[in-house]
Amino acid sequence: MSIRILITDGLDAGAIEQLRNDGYEIVENYYAPEELGAALKDFDCVIIRSATKIRQAQIDACQGGKLKLIIRAGVGIDNIDVKYAEEHGIAVRNTPRSSSQAVAELALGHMFSCARFISAAGHSMREGKWEKKVFSKGIELQGKTLGIVGYGRIGQHLGVMAKGIGMNVIAFDIFHIPGIEKELGIPYVEMDELLAKADFISVHAPAVDGGALISAESIAKMKDGVVIINTSRGTNVDEAALLDALNSGKVRAAGLDVYADEPASNSALYSHPMVSCTPHIGAGTKEATKKIGGEAISVIKGFFEK
Fold this sequence. Notes:
Number of strands: 11
């Protein structure tokens, strides 16, 4: 019997073609949240990205159906109620290796943008202005300290690149990977030490319960003129606290790819002149899209053809 796979948020065209050639029945369709659960009853597998959320309501609605596997084509799985799905016999997988380099490069890009006013200066020129004096007060990344909050694959990629341009790099994570400090030459530190020492702070942690990782309290512990980068989850940074710190000058600049609400609704934040912003495009490269598709195929074959 044919395995039916629903793709709700898109997937690499080559990967879809390969799955069809391998005998899988593929349906590409986005469902509204209230319709998704019932639709899932007719599929063995669903592949989602960040736009689709599978919560208890959708899992309850698809009970008695065919669904056996949810694949998050990407790293974060906080848009899925993982424990609840697994308790109801539905496996959850992601593609953690595919987009790490893409996200890390975007974070580094935002660091350069914040340091040298790249986003703001570009907007100024499109308005017909030539504000050379205004934007000739940048800073260099070389010699500065980068603190990475969340030292998984993305954080590691960023750390290696930052060391390559002469930054000092420190990392915080609740889990310590044996041997990685010696391998990459990047030490683990406690969060308070990272907050106190870092000139740039880049967040690469999953969404956490109990409040934002970057809050008014944590910002108060940072250096004056710190730069904050967030390409992880919007809720990891308290947007109101960040905006206050940008306005006061405590935070020099921020680079943001993710927001508490998406599409982003906090215009005071994303239109701030010292914010470099992108619309959640961290994994949005041709290379990452292709790798995500390939990794999704491996997950499917490993699950259904074992």
